[in-house]
């Protein structure tokens, strides 16, 4: 039972962190086009780069790396939900690719084009907020009901291993500058 509790707490913490980062990113994007006459195109590119980094982070979350693969195929209801979540992820990636193309080819940096870019980035954020909400309200409760304490154990072990590896990488990076 402790492994299930640990796993759910770890996932919950990660979900809250993702929501917090996404909220700040959306505020940053909104600030980019709040006053179009003072728009800084490099700030827009920075916002896009932060979204792309965040997208990578999202695909490396414990839910995506360990929980979803562990429960895939468990029930048709769950597989339907996983397909929907995957579709939302693909849609988000498509939005990011579109924004990247628009940024790359943005010869005309008119207020209209900048507004389109910012709105597309906000749509990406809204899409991801929706996905995180579905995970919190539908996926995680379903997974919690499906998995036995014995089935949680290898998932929790993967969490601990991933956390240890992440900590090791952070340590090696912090000492690299010495």
Supply the key terms.
178 residues; de novo design (two linked rop proteins); mainly alpha; 6 helices; 87% helix
Overview of this structure, please?
The protein has 178 residues and is an all-alpha fold. It has a single domain, classed as de novo design (two linked rop proteins) (Up-down Bundle). The longest helix is centred in the C-terminal third of the chain and has 36 residues. The radius of gyration is 19 Å and the shape is elongated.
> Major β-sheet, in short?
none
Which CATH C-level class is it? Mainly Alpha
Q: State the shape.
A: elongated
Q: What would you report as the Rg, rounded to the nearest angstrom?
A: 19 Å
Strand residues, percent: under 5%
Number of domains: 1
Contiguous uncertain segments of 5+ residues: none
| CATH level-3 fold name | de novo design (two linked rop proteins)
What would the average pLDDT be, to the nearest integer? 87
At CATH level 2, the architecture is Up-down Bundle
- Element-level helix/strand string: HHHHHH
Structural class: mainly alpha
Compute the separation of the termini in Å. 43 Å
Number of strands: 0
> What is the number of helices?
6
Helix content: over 70%
How would you summarize what this structure contains?
With 178 residues, this protein is mainly alpha-helical.
Please describe the topology of this protein:
Layout lengths: L1 H32 L7 H19 L2 H10 L4 H29 L6 H36 L2 H28 L2
């Amino acid at each position: 039972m402790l492994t299930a509790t640990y796993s759910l707490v770890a996932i919950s913490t990660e979900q809250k962190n993702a929501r917090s980062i996404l909220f700040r990113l959306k505020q940053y994007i909104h600030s980019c086009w709040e006053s179009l006459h003072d728009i800084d195109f490099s700030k827009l590119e920075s916002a896009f780069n932060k979204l792309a980094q965040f997208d990578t982070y999202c695909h490396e979350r414990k839910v995506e790396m360990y929980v979803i693969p562990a429960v895939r195929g468990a029930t048709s209801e769950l597989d339907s939900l996983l397909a929907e979540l995957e579709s939302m992820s693909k849609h988000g990636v498509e939005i990011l690719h579109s924004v990247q193309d628009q940024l790359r080819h943005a010869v005309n940096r008119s207020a209209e084009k900048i507004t389109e870019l910012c709105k597309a980035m906000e749509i990406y954020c809204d899409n991801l907020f929706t996905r995180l909400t579905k995970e919190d309200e539908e996926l995680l409760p379903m997974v919690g009901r499906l998995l036995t304490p014995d089935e949680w154990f290898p998932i929790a072990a993967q969490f601990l291993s991933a956390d240890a590896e992440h900590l090791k990488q952070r340590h090696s990076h912090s000492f690299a500058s010495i």
